[in-house]
Design goal:
Helix content of chain B: 25-40%
Low-confidence stretches of chain A: none
Shape of chain B: globular
Strand order of the largest sheet of chain B: 3-7-1-14-11-12-13
CATH class of the largest domain in chain B: Alpha Beta
Distance between the termini of chain B: 41 Å
Number of strands of chain B: 28
Oligomer: heterotrimer
Order of helices and strands of chain A: EEHEEEHHHH
CATH topology of the largest domain in chain A: Ubiquitin-like (UB roll)
Strand content of chain A: 15-25%
CATH architecture of the largest domain in chain B: 2-Layer Sandwich
Low-confidence stretches of chain B: 1-7
Number of strands of chain A: 5
Structural class of chain A: alpha+beta
Largest sheet of chain A: 5 strands, mixed
Structural class of chain B: alpha+beta
CATH class of the largest domain in chain A: Alpha Beta
Strand content of chain B: 15-25%
Number of helices of chain A: 5
Chains: A alpha+beta, B alpha+beta, C alpha+beta
Helix content of chain A: 25-40%
Mean pLDDT of chain A: 97
CATH superfamily of the largest domain in chain A: Beta-grasp domain
Number of helices of chain B: 20
Largest interface: A-B, 61 and 63 residues
Distance between the termini of chain A: 56 Å
Number of domains of chain B: 3
């Protein structure tokens, strides 16, 4: 077995260090080494989006990133989305719109939706649907998720005014 | 969004002035789920925990000649290895467990193959090791000598007399003459009424067709996962994601021959199930590994394993013949259903048969079903098991009949609709059903008359599901500050904690945020059947309501003591004890006050109710779908979807709408793109979310859900099960829309672009 | 993936050396969206992963005269954010952006898409139609090759041991040029192309096509540069008759298989449809530019 490598990175603003097998994914490191189990593994092949995180400002599937690639990088996960116990407007809108049922895809969807609104504060419904197409949800039929995202976008635009 | 259209007979506790039930509060488990704190099956870590993994058959059908684990055992870091030899060799024994009836021998042999592997992905051995990578290496070191046998994956091929036989002990049941040769047809069932031949002879119009559906997976995003720990004294702990902690306990006890008192199962949050988590795959294996090595063992399936070795539901081959009078009165129906069971018997063809004609009042019919084993994964329950498959056939035939009669498809359904007092095709007499109201909801919806453009088509289909009640336990405890805790034994798969808290809050007269619900482990609450069959809000909700009512009675008794009046003088009004006789000048007593003084009135306040709920009201759905087909590429765009359903009473309307929208999305996937694809060797070719194509956000429009509320008076608030009905109509609603758009009748699912383009080109 | 080794060199020469030393199991890592999936599924043997993302030239987009030079590991999303590239080569950018989800776009690169050597790679027909070239670095130095020379069979490239693609170069182009890429997938997103078609056109002042390139994906073992299909357009204004000829020529160029994603018959028909539609879009773009 290959030797583990020492990795230093920033996760949700905090410096972290961990040892990673060269074949381990960033998702493995987040979940198993750093105890951040909010990012989920639904497929391990980048097809479901449940492991979505933001890596150096880019939305990625953490199952398609090697843990060793995180050396010196910034990672943002679902655990960093709320400020203390104050939920991000997206999180709040997901609750208000009943945009989750089992909740397993929810962390990944929220991280993706945040990346969407960071890049495009005023998306159309179609833009939101295509942006979020990499996040599978099997419970909701997406209806309430899209409504929650659009509503959060409107609220965030209001806050900026 | 939804409109509430109907209010017929009120339920016992629905006085028209409900304060909590029918509102849309934030779910009590929501904050944890939007912040990543909620603990699912794979999220738990234990001190000393090791990793368990399964070696799976690469063959669809083979005899296991030998399994050599010596090299794997010698690998440093390997802690345990099990094969079928480490499990009791169970005899054939039928069991009943709500929706998931089966045979214990089959269950055990599906968990770990014994002597023979019956599908690609069948478990043959398992290892536990100190790391995931060591476990992988160990699996690669296990040498299994297989003698490959001929296999069969298609249902009709498996029924052929010269097909390779999966089980030498299987002789078709349900035949007039007991066969003398084993067969892959496990069972034939039959439902009949009237004189079919005479009815067809008298019919003015008949239609006849053959319809097929592919095997599809439930597609929950969370793979199966558990942690199991076996202590030296035989006491076991299991943490797992499932639709029923008691189901897990029972199955582990049976498969490993353990006592239930020695198994404590704690339900993790469940990341979707849809019926697919109503059985065990990993838990007994994890316990067997833990028993061998003494460490807690964590097992998590990969997505590949989920597809190859769990779920799916049956592929089906159906024929339907309908006969009708010129005015649209259906006089005869002949339905034959052949359902793929997978490696072991137990397809949902029984339910498929019972639901096939349940929406219709037809005097003469025959429904024959075949349960057929194949070298594919053993099917598991999937949302209204069997009903979508038979509904696809019947509702497509209905569309053809409407066309042949020159009749509006909705009018044809109305003409032949079942109503209260009619005997259902599957036996009982309907009471308090809201089918006609649901048809009316679609007829009066603007979607029904909206214009269509070129290459667009509209499809209508209806669907039925029984819904069940069954055994549940719930406890309600009042805290010393007057808040409450609701404890139940049903995993919350889609928001049931919210509805439990709401029903308790309604009865207690508390704001819902003062009632906190939990889902307890098997040692902390009484037995409850699993979350399935659309039973939880109905049956467990009934237990919660009754426990809350007991508490209200107790609170009135205690208030009477504190007021020093007789108990019949006390009313419970909005969470406050009020003395009826104002002249006595007694101050009202709040729940908080009574709780604070509970020491003076008999001690802690709490109640538990265990019941076997009867009278679950069946549900009906009517769906309308518009599609546009690109005639050159065969690509289908779902433009608009409206689903009306009789839900009895929506306890939390947003989550009821969510059930409908989710069911529709799954049904659209089933109709258009989802399917198990096997290569010539019986290997699944698309065991991943790349090529097993579930709908993504950009594939769907908003899904308009109409909640029709025809109360079920057997439930305190009128609720009917809602989770399963919505997946029944979409297959045909989409299919009928596609057929209308291209002007050709399509009869085979999935209706993927190559099939549609080929149909268009067929001229 | 337990026996994988990983290094992240900072110069192309170090990378080439490491790839050569790593033997047949050594793989360059661009975005990793194919590589990691293949390693995990066992389709590729575990070996040495050479991350190219710490090599400065491998990341980013440079303009060189009228040409665009795109670093091998530049993620797709960076292309979509580059205004000038999007104006010059909208078809290439669209094609690249069709690869996978938003998440995959945050990682997946054109060079990775190319060197994965899948006949269904979305960016490749657009690159081939664009007459793009690649800069290849290897143990013996640097060389340039056409994009269509890279893949030689499904999963196989013409790259020698130690060689990897460092840059992709989109040539300078005259005014009144336009390109487009379309694909057919069962869903609206997240699928592998069942058929793909890239078309790149240049018009004269009168709107007559003076140069045309048509490339088809997923209808043969490698992306097909359909010269007869392109010839059907040259000298026309992409009128109905020309498009019909293009459709027929595109279909004639196909040599597909039937598999889980589509039948050979379907693929062939759709190749004609998509070539026609892409040509119409490319023509409209060329007129406006």
């Amino acid at each position: 077995m290959s030797k583990r490598q020492h990795i230093s990175a920033t996760v949700n603003g905090d410096p972290v260090e961990f040892l990673a097998e060269p074949g381990a994914t960033l998702l493995d490191a987040l979940r198993d080494d750093l105890g951040l189990t909010g990012s989920k593994e639904g497929c391990g092949s980048g097809d479901c989006g449940a492991c979505s995180v933001i890596l150096d400002g880019r939305l990625v599937c953490s199952c398609l990133v090697l843990a060793v690639e995180a050396e010196g990088r910034r990672v943002e996960t679902i655990e960093g989305m709320a400020e203390g116990s104050k939920l991000h407007p997206l999180q709040q809108k997901f609750l208000e719109h009943a945009a989750l049922q089992c909740g397993f895809c929810t962390p990944g969807l929220l991280v993706s939706a945040k990346a969407l609104l960071d890049a495009n504060p005023d998306p159309t419904e179609t833009e939101a649907r295509y942006w979020l197409a990499g996040n599978l949800c099997r419970c909701t039929g997406y209806d309430k998720i899209i409504r929650a995202v659009m509503d959060a976008a409107a609220e965030l635009r209001q806050e900026k005014v | 969004m939804s409109d509430v259209l109907e209010r017929r007979d009120a339920a016992p506790l629905d006085d028209g002035h409900l304060k909590v039930v029918g509102t849309r509060p934030v779910r009590p488990d929501g904050a944890d789920k939007v912040t990543g704190k909620a603990m699912y099956g794979a999220d738990l870590a234990m001190p000393g925990m090791v990793v368990g993994k399964i070696l799976r058959s690469p063959h669809a059908h083979a005899r296991i000649v030998s399994i050599d684990t010596r090299k794997a055992r010698a690998l440093p870091g390997v802690k345990a290895i099990v094969t079928a030899a480490d499990f009791p060799d169970l005899a054939s024994e039928e069991f009943e467990a709500g929706e998931s009836a089966g045979n214990l021998r089959d269950l055990s042999q599906n968990v770990m193959a014994r002597h023979v592997v019956l599908y690609d992905g069948h478990a043959v051995a398992a290892v536990a090791a100190t790391s995931s990578s060591i476990a992988d290496e160990a699996l690669a070191l296990i040498v299994v000598d297989y003698e490959v046998l001929p296999h069969v994956t298609e249902v009709e091929a498996a029924m052929s007399p010269d097909a390779p036989v999966l089980h030498a002990h299987m002789f078709t049941q349900g035949l007039a003459v007991t066969p003398d040769k084993p067969s892959n047809i496990a069972k034939r069932n039959e439902l009949t009424r009237g004189d079919l031949a005479a009815a067809f002879a008298e019919a003015d119009v008949t239609v006849e067709g053959r319809y097929t559906t592919a095997a599809v997976h439930q597609g929950y995003i969370e793979p199966h996962a558990c942690v199991a720990s076996y202590a030296a004294d035989g006491q076991c702990q299991v943490w797992s994601s499932s639709q029923g902690q008691f189901m897990i306990r029972t199955y582990c006890a049976k498969v490993l021959n353990l006592e239930s008192s020695n198994i404590r199962v704690t339900p993790a949050e469940i990341g979707g199930g849809f019926g697919g988590k109503t059985t065990v795959y990993l838990e007994p294996v994890a316990l067997a590994l833990s028993r061998q090595c003494g460490h807690p063992v964590k097992m998590v399936m990969t997505r590949d394993e989920v597809f190859r070795a769990s779920g799916p539901t049956s592929a089906g081959v159906m024929t339907v013949k309908l006969g009708a009078k010129a005015d649209g009165t259906i006089t005869a129906a002949d339905v034959v259903l052949k359902f793929q069971a997978g490696a072991f018997e137990g397809s949902p063809v029984g339910a498929g048969s019972m639901t096939a004609l349940a929406c219709y009042d037809i005097p003469n019919f025959s429904i024959v079903g075949y349960d057929v084993v194949t070298n594919t994964p053993k099917v598991a329950a999937y949302r209204a098991p069997g009903a979508p498959i038979s509904a696809f056939a019947v509702e497509t035939a209905m569309d053809e009949l409407a066309a042949k009669l020159g009749m509006d498809p909705l009018a044809l359904r109305e003409k032949n609709a079942v109503r209260d007092g009619m005997k259902a095709s599957y036996g009982p007499v309907f009471k308090n059903i809201g089918y006609v109201e649901t048809l009316e909801a679609i007829r009066s919806h603007p979607h029904y008359t909206a214009p269509l453009g070129p290459n667009q088509g509209r499809g209508l289909a209806v669907g039925f599901w029984f819904n069940i009640g069954g055994e549940s336990t719930a406890a309600v405890n009042i805290n010393e500050d007057g808040t409450a805790v609701v404890i139940s034994g049903n995993p919350d798969i889609g928001g049931s904690r919210a509805s439990m808290a709401m029903m308790a809050a309604e009865v207690l007269g508390l704001p819902v945020e003062k009632v906190r619900p939990i889902v307890a482990d098997t040692a902390s609450i009484g037995f409850s059947m699993l979350t399935g069959g659309s039973r939880t809000t109905f049956a467990t909700g009934m237990a919660v309501t009754q426990a809350s009512q007991k508490i209200v009675e107790d609170l009135k008794r205690r208030a009477a003591m504190l007021m020093d009046v007789s108990v019949d003088q006390v009313d419970w009004v909005d969470g406050v004890a009020v003395c009826r006789d104002a002249s006595k000048g007694k101050a009202d007593l709040s729940l908080a006050h009574i709780a604070e003084k509970s020491g003076q009135t008999g001690g802690p306040i709490g109640a538990q109710v265990s019941l076997n709920a009867q009278g679950a009201g069946p549900g009906f759905g009517v769906h309308l779908c518009d599609v546009e087909v690109d005639p050159e590429t065969g690509h289908v765009t779902v433009l608009r979807y409206t689903a009306a359903q009789d839900v009895g009473k929506a306890i939390h309307p947003a989550y009821v709408e969510g059930q409908i929208q989710g069911g529709v999305a799954q049904g659209v996937g089933w109709a258009l793109n989802e399917e198990y694809i096997f290569d010539r060797t019986g290997h699944m070719e698309n065991a991943g979310f790349l090529d097993y194509r579930v709908p993504v956000a950009s594939d769907l429009p908003m899904i308009d859900s109409i909640l029709v509320e025809v109360a079920n008076p057997r439930h305190p608030f009128g609720a009917k099960g809602v989770g399963e009905v919505p997946i029944v109509p979409p297959l045909a609603a989409v299919g009928n829309a596609v057929s209308a758009a291209i002007g050709k009748r399509l009869t085979d699912l999935p209706m993927a672009p190559p099939k549609i383009r080929a149909a268009i080109d067929a001229g | 993936m337990s026996n994988v080794e990983f290094i992240a060199p900072t110069s192309p020469e170090q990378a080439a050396k490491a790839l050569l030393a790593g033997g047949p199991g050594a793989r360059p890592l661009g975005g990793g969206t194919d590589l990691l999936v293949q390693l995990r599924s066992g389709r590729l043997p575990a070996g040495l992963i050479v991350d190219l993302k710490r090599i400065p030239e491998a990341i980013g987009i440079r303009q060189d005269g009228g040409a665009f030079v795109i670093g091998a590991s530049t993620p797709g999303i960076t292309l979509s954010e580059h205004k000038a590239l999007g104006l010059a080569w909208p078809g290439v950018v669209e094609a690249t952006n069709l690869i996978g989800s938003t998440q995959v776009q945050g990682r997946a690169s054109m060079a990775g898409n190319l060197c994965n050597a899948s006949p269904a790679a979305d960016s490749v027909p657009a690159l081939v139609a664009a007459r793009a070239t690649c800069l290849i670095v290897g143990p013996d130095g640097r060389r340039t090759a056409t994009v269509e020379s890279i893949a030689v069979a499904p999963g196989k490239t013409s790259l020698a041991p130690g060689e990897f693609v460092l840059e992709i170069r989109l040539p300078a182009r005259p005014g009144r040029s336009g390109d487009a890429y379309l694909r057919s997938i069962p869903r609206t997103e997240m699928d592998i192309a069942v058929v793909g078609a890239g078309v790149n056109l240049t018009l004269d002042a009168a709107g007559v096509i003076t140069e045309a390139h048509v490339a088809l994906g997923a209808v043969g073992p490698t992306v097909i540069l359909a010269t007869a299909a392109a010839a059907a357009l040259v000298g026309t204004k992409a009128d109905e008759a020309a498009l019909a000829n293009l459709d027929a020529a595109a279909r004639a160029a196909c040599n597909p298989i039937s598999d889980k994603r589509g039948t050979a018959e379907f693929r062939t028909k759709i190749a004609g449809v998509l070539a026609r539609r892409a040509a119409t879009i490319a023509y409209g773009r060329a007129e406006k530019r």
